[in-house]
Design a protein that fits this description.
alpha+beta; single chain
């Protein structure tokens, strides 16, 4: 969902426009804000929409957030981000247009470059192979760091059989409980 009312800060607008391909009419570029999914948690997202070679071309800038790994390790949030190093790591298929400027992640938006959004009934339509591919992709991030991979392996070796299913069931139950409480409070 895009909103025409909120324009990005000037330096973000400039960087978005600069991220568009050569040949885009810079004077006709539309800038707007974007709200998508729940992962951004209210952090700013901006879009540049231009016309190139007979069609639309889009670039997004979204606020770069610290990794949850930093928080889990008790480290300071202010440490330098490893986002690009991880995103372009040895076990990843890097996006050549992915960049970081001014604490924002700049990326293309295309029909074949979007995340899968889960809806109310999405679980019924997702096949095990897709979930395995998603898990493999996530694991490839950790495989790029031998230290992280070793720590994860050591932790997994200590866990009892079935721990993940149990943790997922507990998390799902807590989310349902939180949602019921939120619904009551929002009436």
């Amino acid at each position: 969902m895009a909103s025409r009312n909120t324009r990005p800060p000037q330096r973000i607008a400039r960087a978005l426009i600069d991220s568009l391909p050569k040949g885009v009419d810079r004077d006709s570029v539309r800038l707007c804000s974007r709200r998508k999914g729940g992962g951004s948690l209210g952090r700013p997202r901006y879009v540049a929409i231009g016309y190139w070679r007979g069609g639309r071309v889009l670039r997004e800038a979204k606020a770069l957030v610290p990794s949850a790994w930093i928080w889990a390790q008790g480290r300071k949030k202010s440490q330098k981000s490893n986002f690009l190093r991880v995103a372009k790591g040895r076990y990843r298929a890097p996006d050549p247009l992915l960049q970081v400027h001014h604490k924002f992640v700049f990326r293309r938006i295309a029909g074949d470059a979007e995340k899968i959004e889960l809806g109310d009934n999405a679980g019924a339509a997702i096949h095990l192979r897709l979930l395995q591919a998603m898990g493999f992709d996530l694991a490839s991030i950790h495989a790029a760091s031998p230290r992280s991979a070793g720590a994860i392996r050591k932790d997994l070796d200590k866990r009892p059989r079935g721990w993940l299913n149990e943790a997922a069931a507990t998390a799902a139950s807590e989310v349902r409980r939180d949602f019921r409480e939120w619904k009551k409070a929002s009436k």
